[in-house]
Amino acid sequence: MWGHNPGIRDYSAREWSGMLNGFYLKRWHKFLVAADTAMESKRDFDEARFNEALCAWERSWAEQREEYPTQPIGDSVETAERLWVKYNKKLTVLD
Question: Alpha-N-acetylglucosaminidase C-terminal domain: which residues (predicted)?
Answer without folding.
Answer: 1-84
